[in-house]
Write a structure and sequence with these properties.
Length: about 500
Amino acid sequence: MPAWGSIPGFHRVLKRDSFYYSRLLQCHSSPKSVARIHAQIIATGHGHNPFLASKLVSRYTDLGGRGIDDARRVFDRAPQRDILLWNVMIRSYANSGPQTEAIILYCHLRRTSVRPNCYTYPFVIKACAALGDENEGRAVHADAVRAGLDSDLFVSNALVAFYAKCCEIETARNLFDEIPVKDLVSWNSMIAGYSQNDCAYEAIALLHQMLREDVVTKPDRVTIAALLPACAALAAVQEGMWAHSYVIKTGMEMDARLGSGLVSMYANCGRLDTAQELFERVREPNLILYNSIIRAYGMHGHAKEAVVIFSKMLEMGIEPDGICFICALSACSHAGMVHEGFEIFEMMDSYGVEKGQVHYACMVDLLGRAGQLRRAVEFIGRMPVDPGGDVWGALLGACRIYNDIELAEEAAKKLFLLDPENAGRYAALAKMYEDVGRWEDAARVRKALRDRGVRKPLGCSMVEVDTEVHTFGVEDESHPMTAEIYVVLEQLQKLVVEDEIAAIG
DNA sequence: AACATGTACG
């Protein structure tokens, strides 16, 4: 702009119509120049032009921060609003928040004579998904049906993602199946939906359906990133390695999104070394990638490494979040690093991260596993918030290790009140009674458990051998090779004990 | 002017 202005007579050749300002906005992105062009638009009498208002709304929103407020001022002052202007303003709120504003604007729009079009619905539905507002989303869906736009591919894809986000995974699948010609986003939305709803098997099955049935649509980095949590959940190392090889084969850059998914997948499949190699390969690491690798070390008992990499992350200036502290604290607790755990716990305040139930539970677990049950109880007593099921559950787990039945009863009593549907914890108490021969008490707990009806499945480990997935639960004797497995398990336990003795001596 | 992606205690 300054360069053009310096050409003599330029302003006479160039007509300063709305297209001129539109182009001008296209090539200027700093807050100052956007504001200056905005002033010019008003000064030259183009302020009433809804097309320019749309451009300004988009531009201001792109600036980030408080830019969206400037965008809203442009929208509010526009003397006339066409559907484009409504759409870009709704889009701004859907993407940058507050998403409730997107919905409020849509409601205003419905009361005008301007008709929403096939661009409007994806924006509004996205806002509903971000808020998890199921009722509003259903209403918008109904509007789209009435407007005859629900068969639009973008609207359908947005609805699939929305219902998946609201845990209506079957509704999502039904809509997905209705899409006659699916595109990459259709497949990605549905695969991601399954992954996020703990339907790991379905996610992987759908990928295979995509590869089999849709010859034109090829998986991209979004497909892979959505698939990886499913591979991790099933410890499906074959599928996970296929995903990894696909990344390499198609020359995808190893960004933090793919990296964190792959790190977690390999860690869950027991391949810590591969997870570590992958972590180092990511050029621009971010918080989530660090969280993944810290958890990976922690879950494999390498707490020292987990803490080292946690410190390295802080040195790099990456701000930790609540999840990051959960990963670091649990690493400490599995390795008995009580002192380090408390240091990290105290750091939460200085980083402005709020301490949640899970963090307190980690600390109880840390003390409890280390055998400091009294200190754990004191810690619970000093908590500034009411201890929840997570906290009592951690204490109960520790009582189980150290056979403190009285304290276990106390913790279990609280758990019955707070978290009556969690079967695994009562099973732990019942097992303790059985260990000391208090069969009647054990039977009483198991009966109470049955009476409550809902039985959450117990946790289990999995391992994939060739093409078969084997699962193992606590006290599980259902596997055809149970006898052999327990022989090996006993050998391992002997090795661990010898190792511990060697470490002490 | 459009919809889809990663990390979480026991």
